[in-house]
Amino acid sequence: MKNRNVTVILLLVAVCLSNSAAAGEGRDALIEEVLVQIDGRPGGVDIEKLIAVKPGELFSLSKINYSIKQVYKTGLFADVQVLKAGTERIQLTFVLTSQPVSRSVHFIGVDSIPRRRLENRVYSLRQGSPYTKERLEKAREELTRALREEGIFDPDIRGYADRVPQSTQVDVFFDIQSTKTYTVRDIRFSGSILFPPEKLLEKMGTRVGRRYVPSNLTRDIQRVQELYFDEDYRRAEVRLQRQEFDEASSGVVLTLEVIPHERIVVHVTGAKVPLELIKPIWAAEIFEEWGLDEGEAKIIAHLRKKGFLFASVASSIERRENEIHVVHKVNPGRKVGIGNVDFQGMSYFTPERLKSELGIEDNLPFFPRLDGARLFELPLEIEFLYQTQGFPEAEVLLQFEWQGNHVKPFFYIDEGRQEIVARLTFEGADLFPPTELLSRISSMPDGPFYQPTVQQDIEKLLNFYRNQGVRGTDIRAAVEMVEEDRFNVEFQIREGKRVVIQDIVISGHQVTRLSTITRELRINRGDLARHAAIRESKRRLENLGIFSEVRIEEIQLSPESMNLFIRLNEGQRNYLSAGLGLETATAPESVDVWNEDVRLRGTGEVMRGNLFGSAAQLSLVGQLSIRERRVVASWQQPYFFRVPMKTYLSSWWEREERTSFQYERQGISLSGIRAFGGNQDWTLITGLRYARTKLLELEIEENEIDRQFFPYSTTSLEGSVIRDRRDDPFNPTTGYFFSTALEWAYPLFDIESDFLKLFAKYQHYIPIRKDVLFSFTTRLGLGSGRMPIPERFFAGGSNSFRGTRYDQLGPDDPISGKPVGGKALFLVNFELVVPIFPQLQYLNAVLFYDKGNVFARRAEFSIRSLADAVGIGLRYRTPLGPVRLELGWNPGARPGQSKTMVFITIGNIF
Q1: Are 638 and 613 spatial neighbours (Cβ–Cβ below 8 Å)?
Q2: Which pTM does this prediction carry?
Q3: Is the dihedral of CA 498, 502, 507, 513 positive or negative?
C-alpha cells in the first residue's frame, strides 16, 4: 500500500507539470478524449464509468485526482498511470494494471504437517486475497514462524506465484526446500517445583528422544500448570526458561521454570457446595475482600437455586506459612418450595403483563418454573423494567409468606413518579413527514420518557434514512424539562442527500455468469441507494453457496450519486466427503449389545459446484449398509426457469431390506423447494416422481397388488408444507415443527399403482424450567387406493414406537408373523428430559411414553386399539444431535414378542 501511494503522488506531480506547461499555451484546454487501458487492452464500460473526467470538459487536475482515487477504491488495480497528450485539445489515457488475486495457496515439502494447519497460520495470503510481492514476503515470514511452532527450524522457503491464463488470478506456491529439526536431549526444571520431576514429565507429551515441537511444548506447559491448579496452587506459573540448541548433535535441552506462588485452599462447611464455583475466583491477584464477597454471592446463589432461600455465609481468610485458607461457613437454613408469585402496590402493570415481561409463569406441580436464584434477581429486573417505562425511582421489595413447607413470594412495588414525553418534534426534517418518522421510533407524545430509549430512537431514524437511500444524515436529540416529570424531546435532523445508484460494478467472477449474479440483486441502476436492499443483495449472493466472500462497497461519485462495487471471490467447486459407521444386523433386545453382529456402513459423496456458471451443482451420493444400498445422482439449481425456487432433478437406484420384504427401485424425480411467509419460516416442497419397484423377497402372503418379483410402476405428484420454529434443529429446547405431505400416485400409461397418501407430523418442545424439557410428537398417516407394500405405513423402533422392533407395530401376516403395514397410522410420543448431574450438563435422563398403532384399513382405526410403551433412557448431547440409549417396555406385547427393547441411536428423535 505504501508503494501504491508513492506511485499516485508521483503521477499527480507529473500531471501537475504537464498542466503547468499547458497553461503557458492556453488556460482553456479542453479534454477531447478519455481512454482506459487495462493490462494493455481496452477497458470495459464499467471501469470507464468510475472516471469522473469526461470529453468536452475543461482540463481539471482535481477531477483526475478524484478519478484515480475512485479506481483505487475498487481494489482491482495494483497501479494507475495517467498519460497526457496534446495542449489545447488533450487526450487522457488511464493505464491500469490489474491487481492479481490469489486463487489457491500450496505448500510443498512439508507433507508431515496438515495443510489446513499451515493455512490457518498464514494470514497475509489466502484464497481470494489480493496478491502483491509485499504480501508474499509477509506470508513467507508467517510461514517461517508457523513451521518453527511445528518443530521445523530455519526453513529455506521459496515463494512464487503462477498466473492463471486469461485471468487476474494467481496460484501461490511456498516451496520449503530445506528444513532443520531437533531432538529433545533433556528436560530440566528450575524453581520450587514441589513435585518429583517424574510426575511433571508424566503430564507431558514432549519426551527425551522425540522431535522437539514448540507447539506441543506449549500444550505440555498448560498440562503441568493444571497439575498445580489441581493441588490448589491457583496462581502457579510454568514457563519455558531456556532452550539450548546443539547444532552438532541436532539436540536441544529444555529448561522449564516453575513458580508455584501461594497455595490457596478453599473450605466450605455447613453445606454441600461445589468448590469449583469458588476456586476460579482466586486464580489471579485480587482484593481479598472482593474475593470473599464474590465467593459468598456464588454460594448463596447456588443454595437458593437448590431451594435454600434463606442461606447465609460467614467468610474469613487464614494464613499458614505459604498457604492461604479461604473459609466459608454456611448456614443453609430450611429447604423450602416456592409458590406462585404475587405483586402488590402497582398500578401501571397488571400482574399478567408483568409476568409476561419477566418471562415467568405460574408453577406446575413437581416442576417449578422459578428457582430461588432467579427469584432474588427479579427485584432488579422489575426496577429496570419500570425505568424503561419512565419510572426512575421505582423500588421493589421482596418478602415471603410461609405456607407450611413452602413460601409465597410477594413483590411490593413502589412505582414512584413517572416521567412523560410532553412534546416530541422533528426539526429539519423535510424529506419525510413527521408522522412517518414518529412511526419508526419507540418514544411518543404522552408516552414514557427514558433517555436510553431516545438514544435508540436516533439509531432507528438513521437506519430509516439509510434505507430510504439518504446518505450523510446527522441526528441529535435535545431534551428539555418543561415542568416536573414532563420533557420536550426534539430530534434535530441535518438531512443528507438522496443518493441514486449510477452504476453497479461487479468483479471477481471468473466462472459465474453475470446473469446469475444480477438476478440476486435487489437494487438496480437508477434506484435509490436503499441500505436494506443492498444488504439483502449481499445476503442473497452469499446464500448461493458459490462465493467464499461477498463484499459490496459504496463509491461516492457526487453528493447525490454513487456506484456500487460488488467484489466476489468464488469458492471451491469440487467437494468430496466420506463417512464410516457401525450397525447391527438386528435391533438388540437386551443390554447384551456387544454380542450382536456388528458391521461397517459407509457413505460417500462427490459434488461439482457452480456448473456452467449458473450456481447449479451436480452430486453423486452412495450409501452402503446391511439393510440399504443406494446411489443418487442429483442436479440442483437455485431457480426453476425464472421462478426463485431451489430445484432438484434426481435419478436414483436403491435396494432396501425391510422386516417382511426386500425391494429394488429405480426412478427419477423433479422437486422444487421455496420458502414463503412473512419471516420465510414456511417451506413449500413440490415434486413429480416416476419410480419402478421390484420386490425381491416377500415374506408375507402375496395378494393381487404384491405379486412377488412382479415390478410395478408409480407416477406421483407430491406436495409438502413445513414450518420449523424450533430454536435448534439438532438439539431443540423450545418451539415447534409442523409438516404435512400429500402424495397422489395416478395410473398414467398403464401404470399399476393408484393411491392417495397423506402424512402429517407435529412436534412441540416446552421448557418446564431451565434444565427440564417436555416434548411431544404426533403423527398421522392416511392412505387409500391400491397401495403396494413398500408404499404402506409402518412403525416400530427407536424413532417411532419404542415398544417393538423396527416395523413390528401393527397388523402382521397370520402365517409368517411378519408385518404387512397398513393404510392408517397414528402415533403420539411424550418425553420428559431431566438433568442427572449438574457437572455433566450434556448428559440427561429421559422418561418417555409412546402410544399408537398401524391399521390395515382406515375403517379399523380405533383409539381402543392403540398400543402403549413406556421407558427410560440416557441422552448425551452432541452438535449433530443426542446419542441415545433407551430401554422400552411394552406391557401389551403379543406372544413371541419381547416386552423389553434396547435402542442405541444417534441423532434427534422422530
Answers
A1: no
A2: 0.77
A3: positive
Q: Which one-letter amino acid corresponds to residue 286?
A: I
Q: Do domains 104-180 and 340-414 have the same CATH topology?
A: yes
- Count CA atoms closer than 13 A to 120's CA, side-chain side: 6
pLDDT digits (tens, 9 = 90+) for 94-134: 998 888 888 889 999 888 888 888 988 999 998 878 899 99
Angle at 254 between CA 250 and CA 259, to 5 degrees: 170
Q: Name the residue with cell 430509516.
A: 464
For the record, the C-alpha cell of 146 comes out as 508457523
The residue among 701, 698, 721, 720 whose CA lies nearest residue 710 is 698
Percent of the chain with pLDDT over 90: 61
DSSP-derived 3-state class of residue 18: helix
The amino acid present at 647, given as its one-letter code, is T
Cβ-count burial 315-336 (b if 16+ within 10 Å, e if not): beeeeeeeebebbbebebeeeb
Residue that has been written with the C-alpha cell 515470514 in this structure: 141
Choose the CATH number for 263-331 among 3.40.50.880, 3.40.50.720, 3.10.20.310, 3.20.20.120: 3.10.20.310
CATH of domain 638-906: 2.40.160.50
Query: pLDDT at position 187, please?
Result: 96
User: What one-letter code names the amino acid at 327?
Assistant: V
Which residues lie closer than 8 Å to 634 by C-beta, 6 or more apart? 618, 619, 620, 621, 648, 649, 650, 651
How confident is the model over 173-191, as pLDDT tens digits?
Answer: 999 988 899 999 999 999 9
* Separation of first and last alpha carbons in the chain: 57
Lookup result for grid cell 454441600: 272
Of 148, 146, 147, 172, which Cα lies nearest the Cα of 159?
172
Q: Which amino acid is at 515?
A: S
For residues 700 and 661, the answer to whether their CB atoms sit within 8 Å is yes
Whole-Å CA distances, 769 to 306, 360, 367, 777, 877: 13, 10, 7, 20, 18
Domain residue spans of the chain: 2-98, 104-180, 183-259, 263-331, 340-414, 420-497, 499-570, 638-906
Q: Which of 410-419, 638-647, 673-682 has the lowest mean pLDDT?
A: 673-682
Superfamily of domain 104-180: membrane protein fhac (3.10.20.310)
Whole-number Å distance between alpha carbons of 583 and 568: 44
Choose the CATH number for 340-414 among 3.40.30.10, 3.40.50.620, 3.30.160.250, 3.10.20.310: 3.10.20.310
Q: How confident is the model at residue 697 (pLDDT cuts 50, 70, 90)?
A: confident
**499-570: CATH homologous superfamily?**
membrane protein fhac (3.10.20.310)
| Residues present in the chain in total | 910
Which runs of E-coded beta strand occur in 625-733?
Answer: 628-637, 646-657, 661-676, 682-698, 712-724
Cα separation of 512 and 540, whole Å?
Answer: 15
User: Is pLDDT above 90 for 469?
Assistant: yes
Cβ(588)–Cβ(526) under 8 Å? no
Contact 710, 690 (CB under 8 A): no
Instruction: Quickly name the fold that domain 183-259 has.
Output: Ubiquitin-like (UB roll) (3.10.20)
In this model, does residue 593 exceed pLDDT 60?
no
Look at residue 6 in the predicted model and tell me its pLDDT. 39
CB 80 within 8 A of CB 96: yes
CATH number, span 420-497: 3.10.20.310
Query: By the 8 A CB rule, do 841 and 834 touch?
Result: no
| More confident of the two residues 362 and 525 | 525
Domain 2-98 has CATH 3.10.20.310: yes
Max Cα–Cα distance, the chain, nearest Å: 113
What does the pLDDT look like over 79-103, one tens digit per residue? 888 999 988 899 999 998 888 888 8
Greater confidence (368 vs 360) lies with 360
Question: Residue 485 is placed in which grid cell?
Answer: 416529570
